[in-house]
Design goal:
Blueprint (H helix, E strand, L loop, with lengths): L1 E2 L2 E2 L5 E2 L5 E2 L11 E5 L8 H14 L4 E6 L5 H9 L4 E3 L1 H17 L4 E5 L1
Parallel strand pairs: 5-8, 6-7, 6-8
Antiparallel strand pairs: 1-2, 3-4
């Protein structure tokens, strides 16, 4: 589903406010809200949108879990600065499916919201 210049997977749903909500159930058993920021090409503003979202959520006193998909050393440093906590990498090639899910659950365990930059 396309929304603006960004994409949502079919497992995500549009929220009336214009955001997306992704449901996941960490080991704690509680629902976790999150957003995945993606675009069809580089230069579309994914990093800018992600950093603004992380900073805005932090200002609202939410515990944010930032994630980056794929190998990258620069964006996670900026994510950590904006969110106030380290950003975790979700690389399917390195982690595999089970490792990816485990890394996400562990990284988001104590968070109110997860933001994944694709």
């Amino acid at each position: 589903m396309r929304r603006g210049g960004f994409f949502m997977s079919s497992s995500e749903s549009a929220h009336p406010s214009g955001g997306t909500h992704v449901r996941s159930r960490p080991a704690s058993g509680r629902d976790l809200r999150g957003s995945r920021i993606a675009a069809p090409s580089s230069g579309a503003g994914k990093s800018t949108v992600t950093l603004a979202l992380l900073a805005a959520l932090r200002r609202r006193d939410l515990r944010v879990a930032p994630f980056k998909i794929g190998p990258d050393f620069i964006d996670p440093l900026f994510h950590a600065r904006a969110a106030g906590v380290p950003s975790k990498n979700l690389d399917a090639w390195l982690l595999g499916s089970e490792g990816l899910q485990s890394a996400f659950r562990a990284g988001a365990e104590t968070s109110d919201v997860a933001v994944v930059r694709g």
